[in-house]
Structures are given as C-alpha cells and as structure tokens.
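Students often ask why we bother encoding 3D structure as a string. The short answer is that it lets us treat folding as translation between two languages. Here is a chain of 70 residues written in the first language.
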Amino acid sequence: MNDTTNSGADDTDMTKEEKRRDQLLAAPDAVESDAAPRIEVSKHDGNTRIDIADTAAVRPGPPPTPEEDD
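And here it is in the second language, the structure alphabet:
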C-alpha cells in the first residue's frame, strides 16, 4: 500500500511534534507538562544516543525510598 491510497492519510499539515503534543493533551485533565519531552536524542560519530531528559517527571528505575522522598 502506498501513501496515496492510505485511508488514514493526514491532511492537517502538522509536524510530528505538533501531532505528539496534540495527542498527549487530548486526554481529560491533561496539563501542558504531559506533553513535555521525556528523552533527548543526540548523534556522535555516527552513533545515536538516547538519554532520559533531566526534566522528565517520571524516570526509569526503582521508586525512591522514604529517605529519598524528604
């Protein structure tokens, strides 16, 4: 199937980032921070590096201990 016959074609002229933001903010009770970037992608010498953004509200790993919550 090619793009011209795709019944789900998008004619909104939105960028991928705009579509992502629009979808993340469409949920009930969504707030602007829900659409904040969660990863940072960079390329170095032909290698792609993906890091969790420092500003990400949720980070991978074990939950904080009660001592860390203070």
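Translate back mentally: DSSP finds two helices and two strands in the chain. Keep this in mind for the problem set.
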